[in-house]
Write a structure and sequence with these properties.
- This protein is α+β, with helices and mostly antiparallel strands.
- The protein has two domains: about 90 residues, Arc Repressor Mutant, subunit A, CATH 1.10.10; about 160 residues, BsuBI/PstI restriction endonuclease, C-terminal domain (Trna Endonuclease, Chain: A, domain 1), CATH 3.40.1350.80.
- Helix content is about 35%, strand content about 25%.
- The chain contains eight helices and eleven strands.
- Strands 6-5-7-8-9-10-11 form a seven-stranded mixed sheet.
Length: about 260
């Protein structure tokens, strides 16, 4: 963006437009076989500040012929290669995606990264242990915004959201107890603190099910950074200690085990 501001004065980009550049420019360059995304580490998370792009070898070879007699034939060859190039580079990225089993025989893919891995663990490990028989309603994804959404099931519970962007990372309905678990996957930011707690209560205010707020961490070390911010009347779970859960519920659970 600094380069663009300096060399393309008619099109300055503000710092918060990184996502716009990625979605509306670089994404198309990758589809066209002009650039490849994270060639050094295809499983790098979409929202990583270390994300990089590189001109594809085929595009580099093409550009080097510009102005020479070989240009026309090289361009024709590149255009014939383009569909296969896009498929090849996309498949490398696809291999790094995180599979999430919604139901037997039904799998969705989440964008690569530890955030998605933790989302997978929330549903497949936390859900299996603390919400057996639960129904997956929603799963967010950093690249696709929502990786899975059963909008009809949520509407049946009395919730018709107008802003998916404010949803928690995972929403699970537990029919037996009529609970709705609102789970946040936290690897670098976003626990259920006081502000988020109130925001989620407003977002799901019309819900016919009881709301349960859960913050999930990959490790206790990551959890330790956020403990002072965790809201009361919420739950905390660590993937590295899956058989334990921490209740931030005060005297409600006071007593011997």
């Amino acid at each position: 963006m600094e380069f663009a501001a300096k060399h393309y004065l008619e099109k300055p980009y503000a710092p918060n437009t990184r996502e716009t550049v990625r979605r509306q420019t670089m994404h198309q360059f990758c589809d066209a076989g002009i650039a490849v995304y994270n060639p050094d580490k295809p499983d790098r998370p979409v929202n990583s500040p270390a994300a990089v792009y590189q001109v594809t070898p085929e595009m580099r070879a093409l550009v080097k012929t510009f102005g020479a007699s070989k240009w026309t034939e090289a361009l024709r060859l590149f255009r014939r290669q383009k569909p296969s190039l896009a498929e090849r580079y996309a498949s490398e990225r696809k291999m790094a995606e995180v599979p999430l089993t919604i139901a037997p025989g039904k799998v969705v893919s989440l964008s690569p990264g530890e955030h998605s891995v933790l989302i997978q663990q929330i549903w497949e490990v936390f859900g299996a242990r603390y919400a057996p028989g639960g129904k997956l309603i929603y799963v967010g994804d950093t690249e696709n915004k929502w990786g899975y959404f059963d909008e009809q099931a949520l509407a049946t519970l009395g919730v018709k959201p107008d802003n998916h962007g404010k949803f928690p990372d995972v929403v699970i309905h537990l029919p037996g107890k009529n609970w709705l678990l609102l789970c946040e996957s936290v690897t670098s930011h976003g626990p259920v603190d006081g502000k988020r707690h109130e925001e989620l209560k407003r977002l799901f205010a019309g819900c016919k099910a009881g709301l349960v707020f859960v913050t999930a961490f990959p490790t206790r070390a990551v959890m330790a950074k956020y403990l002072p911010a965790i809201a009361w009347e919420t739950e905390v779970w660590c993937a590295e200690s899956p058989t334990h859960i921490i209740h931030f519920n005060g005297e409600r659970f006071l007593g011997p085990y």
